[in-house]
Specification:
447 residues, mainly alpha, three-stranded mixed beta sheet, two-stranded parallel ribbon, 15 helices, 9 strands
């Protein structure tokens, strides 16, 4: 299955990018039907029509995939200005034969060989304007000479292109995760930023490389963000808020020239997901355990959320707790932990930690601080974990005591790796909710 999916809708700005004009939201299929009916003639040979529609689909999808306009601060996906994009006429009708072709191929698009991002298939009419891409009138001549649609596309875009067929259609989901990325944040969104910063660093060597793009927002990631913000005149916070997120995406797209015909490809390996996009009934693993841990803490101060076992199995009990949480927060009660539900969980968990009731306040340092702890991090939570390690060392001869400094140093990380190994946890040396919970449990002498 391709990594890129077809959006249900596209937001069109009815003017040039900086022109004050209306934004309208239309279905992607209707958008392509409209564009095709405005730009090509229904009397052209069918192979010519198909080649042109492939180009129109791929161009629009490239704009969406690279978040070309949102990354520059605009609130739309594409314009109807032919100086920048494609011709869309609000309220315009479409030709029946063109509509039939679009219905058949709207979720097929052009890619460069080994790439997963829709290709920026530039084109022009070939008579009034000339360009390096496809000539719309030229496709008619090629079609009359017997060229098939794919051969026409190869004629203009090269032999190293391919077609992705039957891509799935899904709702539009902006790339920005909805919550800022700060020191200790973890997940696929962090990994995405790490990869992009490393690529941008090829063109801007003063941005320090992030040696391991493991999805943990650590000290090296923060340093790279700070340097990026300095170079591109952003407030130097070390936090990836919405403005920094989209600036990183824009510069990444620019340096890779994804919107140009000479685009550097994005390979399947580069976009492979490590962290789940959503968790639901039947899933297992440490990500499920983290959700269960958060629900358990939140549930202490909520009468509506049932307690769950932290066993890493997303069963009926966990699904019921998720639905109860979603109901409490006014979210759709799907029982699925998607991005919106995850963000709500994080916010509620932070609130639960901040406002622990009197009967739990003495155990406040036993509650996971809500952010990954990795080498270089400093603070009271590190002091707590170091004290817990020393309590474990009194009971377990394989664990050595550490100096309580409040700095997550090599000595502390080494003992955490040992604890992770003894308890069948991934030996990352980073402390997330499950490792934290395990350390606290062992420090208290619980099995």
């Amino acid at each position: 299955m391709p990594e890129f999916t077809i959006p249900e809708y596209i937001t069109v700005h009815l003017g040039a990018p900086d022109e004050e004009a209306e934004n309208i939201v239309v279905s992607f299929i209707d958008y392509i039907k409209n564009v095709a009916s405005n730009e090509i003639y229904p009397t052209w040979p069918e192979t010519s029509l198909r080649a042109n529609i492939f180009a129109q689909i791929s161009f629009a999808l490239n704009r969406i995939a690279t978040e070309w306009y949102p990354s520059q601060g605009y609130n739309f996906d594409i314009t109807n200005s032919t100086a920048y994009d494609q011709s869309y006429r609000q309220g315009g009708d479409y030709f029946e034969n063109i509509g039939n072709i679009v219905d058949e191929i709207f979720n097929d698009y052009v890619v460069l060989e080994n790439s997963v991002i829709p290709y920026s298939t530039k084109y022009c009419d070939g008579i009034r304007t000339q360009c390096e891409g496809l000539s719309q009138w030229g496709t008619v001549y090629l079609a009359n000479e017997g060229y098939l649609p794919y051969q026409i596309l190869q004629y203009y875009y090269g032999d190293d292109i391919g077609i992705v067929f039957d891509a799935p259609v899904r709702p539009n989901i902006p790339s920005y995760p909805g919550l800022p990325l700060i020191l200790g944040t973890s997940g696929e969104d962090v990994r995405s930023i790490q990869r992009r910063l490393n690529r941008i660093g090829d063109n801007y060597p003063s941005i320090p490389k992030i040696p391991v793009t493991n999805g943990v927002y650590n000290i090296t990631t923060r340093d790279a963000v700070l340097k990026f913000q300095e170079i591109f005149d952003l407030e130097q916070t070390g936090i990836v808020d919405k403005s920094t997120w989209y600036r990183i995406y824009y510069i990444y797209t620019s340096v890779r020239r994804l919107a140009e015909l000479t685009a550097e490809v994005v390979t399947r390996e580069e976009v492979e997901r490590v962290f789940p996009r959503a968790l639901q009934l039947g899933d297992t693993g440490r990500y499920v355990q983290t959700i269960q841990y958060y629900l358990a803490v939140i549930g202490y101060s909520s009468e509506t959320i049932p307690q769950v076992s932290i066993d890493g199995v997303f069963g009926a009990e966990t699904e019921s707790a998720v639905k109860a949480f979603q109901k409490e927060k006014g979210l759709e009660e799907t029982g699925i932990v998607d991005r919106e539900t995850w963000n709500a969980l994080v916010t509620a968990y932070d609130a639960a930690r901040a406002f622990l009731s009197g009967q739990y306040i003495t155990a406040a340092d036993e509650i996971y601080p809500g952010r990954f702890i990795s080498p270089g991090v400093e603070g009271d939570e590190v002091r707590s974990i170091q004290r817990f390690i020393n309590m474990i060392a009194e009971k377990d001869s394989n664990i050595s005591p550490v100096t309580v400094t409040g700095v997550y140093d090599t000595q502390t990380q080494e003992q955490i790796r040992k604890i992770q190994a003894e308890n069948n946890l991934p030996q990352t040396g980073n402390i997330g909710a499950i490792t934290w919970n395990t350390v606290v449990r062992l420090a208290k002498g619980q099995q």
